[in-house]
Amino acid sequence: MNTAGPAGPAGPGRRRARLSRLVSFSASHRLHSKCLSDEENLKLYGKCNNPNGHGHNYKVVVTVHGEIDPDTGMVMNLTDLKKYMEEAIMKPLDHKNLDRDVAYFADTVSTTENVAVYIWENLQKLLPGGALYKVKVYETDNNIVVYKGE
User: Fold this and answer.
1) Of all helices (H) and strands (E), which one includes residue 84?
2) Does residue 145 sit in helix, strand or coil?
3) Is residue 84 within 8 Å of residue 126, measured between CB atoms?
4) Residues 40, 54, 67, 95: which is the catalytic one?
5) Has 95 been annotated as catalytic?
6) CA 35 – CA 54 distance, rounded (Å)
7) Given 48, 65, 113, 121, the catalytic residue
8) How far apart are CA 40 and CA 25, in angstroms?
9) What is the DSSP letter of 68?
10) Which letter does DSSP use for residue 11 in this model?
11) Closest Cα partner for 16 from 50, 89, 67, 70?
């Protein structure tokens, strides 16, 4: 017998949802690990190891989750999410050289995986606890990283 009720395990009238918002930013970087020789870096990263770097128009989709507030009908106010994303993503990353302008990448290779981790960590500092569900970073239309804080 199902005792969860018509609304599911959260109880009657308590619904959960995921809310996503997209932003785009432009940045340059160079894939280069200080742990590897110049030859190893070139072999591993190829043209992305160009000493002058290269750029991308990144797209980032941030997904939060939680209960739908019965009074507002929202998981989170989109205006608030927009402000958090501006602070955690746009201000530190847009029109920047990731390796030179963002302290985090001074000793961390600026791969898309690490960009996703950086964004996650920045958002975690701003969002209500437990709200962040997923960060999805599009380096290109074909190269995409999903990070869920694991």
Assistant:
1) helix 78-85
2) strand
3) yes
4) 95
5) yes
6) 21
7) 48
8) 30
9) P
10) -
11) 67
Where in the chain does DSSP place strands (E)? 16-29, 54-67, 96-97, 132-138, 144-147
Classify strands 96-97 and 144-147 as parallel, antiparallel or unpaired.
Answer: unpaired
CA-to-CA distance for 107 and 78, rounded, in angstroms?
34
Helix (H, G, I), strand (E, B) or coil at 130: coil
Q: At what angle do helices 78-85 and 112-126 cross, to 10 degrees?
A: 130
Largest interatomic CA distance in the chain: 65
Among residues 54, 86, 139, 150, which one is catalytic?
139
Note the pTM of the prediction, 2 decimals.
0.90
pLDDT digits (tens, 9 = 90+) for 90-146: 999 999 999 999 999 999 999 999 999 999 999 999 999 999 999 999 999 999 999
For residue 17, how many C-alpha atoms fall within 13 Å in the half-sphere facing its CB? 13
Number of other residues whose CB lies within 10 A of the CB of residue 108: 17
For 65-94, how does the pLDDT look when each residue is reduced to its tens digit (9 = 90+)? 999 999 999 999 999 999 999 999 999 999
Q: Residue 139 catalytic?
A: yes
